[in-house]
Amino acid sequence: MEFAQDSDNTLSASLHGERFSVSYLLRGPEDEARAMATDICFEQTVEFPGDLVPVGPIREDIVGHIEAFEPAGSNRFRATISYAVETVQEDLVQFLNVVYGNISIKPGIRVEHFELPESITSKYRGPRFGRAGLRSLLGQAERPLSCTALKPMGLSPRELAEQAYQFALGGIDIVKDDHGIADQVFCPFEERVERCVQAVAAANAKTGFRSIYMPNVTARMDRMQSLARRAKELGAGALLLCPALTGIDALRVLADDDDIGLPLMAHPSFGGTLVTSKESGMEHGALYGTLMRLAGADASVYPNFGGRFSFTREECADIARATDERLGSLRPSFPAPGGGMTPSRIAEMLGVYGRNFILLIGAGLHTGGVDLAANARRVVELLGAV
Amino acid sequence: MEFAQDSDNTLSASLHGERFSVSYLLRGPEDEARAMATDICFEQTVEFPGDLVPVGPIREDIVGHIEAFEPAGSNRFRATISYAVETVQEDLVQFLNVVYGNISIKPGIRVEHFELPESITSKYRGPRFGRAGLRSLLGQAERPLSCTALKPMGLSPRELAEQAYQFALGGIDIVKDDHGIADQVFCPFEERVERCVQAVAAANAKTGFRSIYMPNVTARMDRMQSLARRAKELGAGALLLCPALTGIDALRVLADDDDIGLPLMAHPSFGGTLVTSKESGMEHGALYGTLMRLAGADASVYPNFGGRFSFTREECADIARATDERLGSLRPSFPAPGGGMTPSRIAEMLGVYGRNFILLIGAGLHTGGVDLAANARRVVELLGAV
């Protein structure tokens, strides 16, 4: 048989010695946890039993390295494992494949944290606006930002636009679609965006604020980006995406698209099992903070502690930390806690997050009376009283 | 303010009364499980407290309906909840958003099964080849099919092609990339596909078999489809994708692409937490069977019981059932159990799966001696001895 001409690259020549590392939390007694750490090194790379891996650069460089191993609480250990940068290239999908591909199916392994060299982080734009850019866009330099969701599903574009008008009139910074509102026959995307953009602009003309409308562009892969571009053309101020539904790389695609160039908010729909099992998946900060930021989210939605979901205060603080820690030269993003928030929770949130968060308040704006603008105004005032 | 002209559609006129239903397994005593079922109806649709939902069609039709509620084992209940078809339209992403969006973050809720009307299933092509088509393509009418993975990561295209040649020479039906092999600098996609296609063709010319090479096209969203089309041009016989990494809709995009038109195999990388928590996520059959089939997988890879992962025999049988149960007029797909399989497991697998499965055997073909073709031949003979 004849083979095509060989590539000039040998493995050794391809590898430049740079590695990224991932800390994993491993459940079990020490001997089992050590065995799990070794298993990860092989499972996530060569997927071969150790004795079958050829000696040389594959065994030396492609197989993961255990860089550190230490206790991390009761019956738990932390293994820091490094991988060659060339195994993942500039591909976020392949990055997650190496970080947590097959081992996602092996219980007891949880991704805690990433350490990424410049050669990886520089491949990502990250948040196009970030905290400072979003504040500047909204003309809010100091106080926590406010965001609400147009709902319930089933309302027409006209009805949602009337809501949007009231919320913007009350000074809500970001008026977004509820994440379940898509391109349904009873609420077509194009008509909704057109009406809501007009409504928010009309309110801004009265108030002098710079509120923005943020449509949900979570959709089929072959429509997502065109919905986003159309939203931009129609004057949307930002975009909402559920990366666990679309694939996280959809967020990066939007972030990289200079024809769009809008702030992006990531919503956690469908991705819950990645964090809710305490012994598998990823730590809250790694997922909602680091990963969403790497993919380009300017803001990352998650359920706040004490709402109708089950995150703890510590897990939420971990997310907020990760939105702001050093990640190459990527901009910090906004944590956007929500899920059953009410005006009475604001003081406590200020205590945990300081002023750098986006309060996501939905139904809580409908419960203070029928005047949505007045309800919104009270919340914005509370946020401003820092 | 001026609003754009209103749409002609009212909600009532938009809804046609057709619903799809999802059975959920709920953890807890009965009163808590009943409350969870009610909560799902609201959380997954209007995301509004019940008292805020307007009377009329939103409350009647958009909010989920509890169709049935019954015990499902110790401290567990099954709630069957229906949703209006119009909430999800023909969008797989939005379907998952409604089925398991926000509630993925609420522990104790597990998707068990889908009941989909023709108005939904008819929107999906499903497996383009299915069991019969894949058997016909491979010229294997009777016995279980065989599949192996080229590995380890780090080998060059030439080295992987030499493996591919040996495996095809031994009669392995599907020679696929290991799922970690991407478009790395040490193993460029284009060169690899070219070489492996040639190698398998050369082996086929000797054996008379119709083995195929199946490259991995899991990649950045903006490259995935072009890699797949290029693979087709270069003569690849099928494609491998990891839908939990790319977003499940990427699979549907490939399945719908008539310029590609190749069999598709889904790999479970990164999606493990959706099944491994017994009290959240999805049942194995719903995820690896029904959903992958809906998205267009001709074969669905998962870890077989008794391998190096933790699935039980019953969970695996559930997957096999779901690949073949009625799902509109969609073709049945192949279960492709793997993960630490060896020739000695084949008899047991035949007992559980019958002849309609794809044996995925990787490292197990490297352990019988240095002659890979001979190792492969032994496995194929065992499969043929049904």
Tell me, what's the shape of chain A?
A: elongated
* Beta-strand percentage range of chain A: 15-25%
Cα-based radius of gyration of chain A, to the nearest Å: 23 Å
Sketch the topology of chain A as an H/E string, one letter per element: HEHHEEHEHHEHEHEHEHHEHEHEHEHEH
Distance between the termini of chain A: 75 Å
Point out poorly predicted stretches of chain A.
1-8
The greatest interface between two protein chains, and residues involved on each side, is: A-B, 103 and 103 residues
Helix residue percentage of chain A: 25-40%
Oligomer: homodimer
Total count of strands of chain A: 13
Strand order of the largest sheet of chain A: 2-3-1-4-10
What is the number of helical segments of chain A per DSSP (H or I, 4+ residues)? 16
Mean pLDDT of chain A: 95
Judged by helices, strands and strand pairing, the structural class of chain A is alpha/beta
Mind describing the biggest β-sheet of chain A? 5 strands, mixed
